[in-house]
Amino acid sequence: MNAGRRTGTVAxxxxxLALSALTVSPAEAADTGITVSxxxxxxxxxVVVGTSDEKTPSVSFRITLPSGYSxxxxxxxxxxxxxxxxxxxAKGADGGGLYMGGYTCFEDGARAADCVGELTIDPRYxxxxxxxxxxxKIGVAARLFKSDxxxxxxxxxxxxxxxxxxxxxxxxxxxxxxxxxxxxxxxVTGSLTRADWVKHKYTGFGSQSAELQFRKKDSSVYTTVxxxxxxSTGALKTTVTASADGYWRWTFAGTSTTGSATAAGDxxxxx
Length: 271
Prior knowledge:
Blueprint: E1 6-10, H1 16-23, E2 35-41, E3 47-49, E4 58-64, E5 77-84, H2 89-93, E6 100-107, E7 112-119, H3 123-126, E8 135-145, E9 151-167, E10 169-171, E11 174-176, E12 185-196, E13 201-204, E14 209-216, E15 223-229, E16 235-241, E17 246-252, E18 261-262, E19 266-268
C-alpha cells in the first residue's frame, strides 16, 4: 500500500445501508463515478461462523473518486464493500447483506485511497438460514454528497470476486477403556456437529468422512489410521488394536458449506 496522509475512519453503512436502499429515488440511483477495486475479504480465506460469536473478517479495498472530489474530504463521499447472495447488489443492500462496521483510508494521490476495515457478522441476527452457507458476492454501496451535505448520487454495484461463508464444525473424541492392555481392543467414539443457524445450536452432521489419527506419546506427528463415515446423527465409532501409549483424535476436512474440525487428542495409557 502506498499510504499517504491518513484520512481517518470513515463511517460505514451499518443499519443506514438498508435504509438508504429503501429510500433512494430514481434520480439518486445514478452512476456515482466511484470505483471500488482490489477487494479482499478475510485475506482470501472462507469465513467460518458459529452459532453465537460475532465474527469480524478483515476487508481491504481501493477507492477511486471521480474528478472534482478528493479523498481528503471524507464527508463528500461514502463507499464500502458488503457481501450478498441475492440476485442483485441492491437487493443485498436491502437488509440481506453483511456489512462493514467502519474503515480507515490512506490517501494515494488526490482522488484515490487504500482502505482497510472489518465486516461484522453476528450469526444470531445476520444468518437466519443454513442456506446462507454458500458463495457470497461482493457488492459496493457508493454515495456522493453535495457541498451542502445533500445526496447527489447513490448506487449499488458488484465488485469482482466472491467469498465463501461456512458453518462452524466441531468434532469430539473418546477412546476407551483407559488404561488398556497392549494387544486388546480400543474403542474410539466421537461426534461430528456443525452450526445450525436456524436452531442456534450445533447439530449432527451425518454421512461425512472423518479420519481417525494417532500420535505416539513421544512424537509430535499424527498419522491417519483409518477413515470412518459419521452416522445419521453425526456419531463416529470404530475399533483399533492398542499397541502403544499415545493420543487419539478425529479430524474432519470440511466441505464447501462447513469448516474443518479437529478434536483435541485423547491420551490412552497402554500397559
